[in-house]
Amino acid sequence: MGIREIKKYFYSQGYYKGLAPEPRFKRIVEIFSKLRGRTLLDVGCGDGSITLLLKESMGAQEVYGIEIAHEAAVAARNKGINVYELDVDGSNFPFEDSYFDVVYCGEIIEHLFDPSHLLNEVYRVLKKGGICVLTTPNLAGWPNRIALLLGYQPYSMAASPRYESVGKLLTKSPEGQWGHIRVMTLKALKDLVKLHGFKVKEVTGCTVSVKSNIPKVLLGLIKLMDKIMSKFPSLSTRIIMVIQKE
Questions:
Q1: pLDDT band at 160 (very low <50, low <70, confident <90, very high)
Q2: Options 3.40.50.150, 2.60.40.10, 3.10.20.30, 3.20.20.70; which CATH number does 3-138+177-209+235-245 get?
């Protein structure tokens, strides 16, 4: 199963439509409200709902998106976003060098076989001093560490793209399609972006929405633990990283 089929599945299940309430977006909007620029590129823009929110937050005038799922791309175009249908895993961006002030890559890099190609293209299309905001799961996040210590599969990596929950703790259904391929630790992500000419400006952790059939008391403890660990990016479930083209 390829990334194109997986993303089509995401969209058909309402994945993009449900992202806005995610806890990480409060922090992302805070970051974008401090950014200024005329041009914005959203890599993996989905149906464009988040793209428009980011546009408003930073006051961008020109907004472009790249999206692999046709249905999502059509929905984004209907919102007035200039969208290119493209698989960024190995494909070059259809933009001139040094065109964008800000690039957003939300939950994208972990789905790629070649993250270096993505970072090369982001670097190329960013203006000197331009900003890229990345979000991605943390391979060394606290739930993954506990799972591994107990002999279970880490939550952010699947044994199979067809059966996401196989071998995982506190999961009942083996079906699922997240499609994670390259999940990194904070250290690995920092080292990788630096190798591609970026300066790390800011790193923060964030909580995630926890949806499970486990008892409410245990669910409450997990949410509390996630909130505490989000204060420590190396242990956080997800990473938000702000990088700058030098």
A1: confident
A2: 3.40.50.150
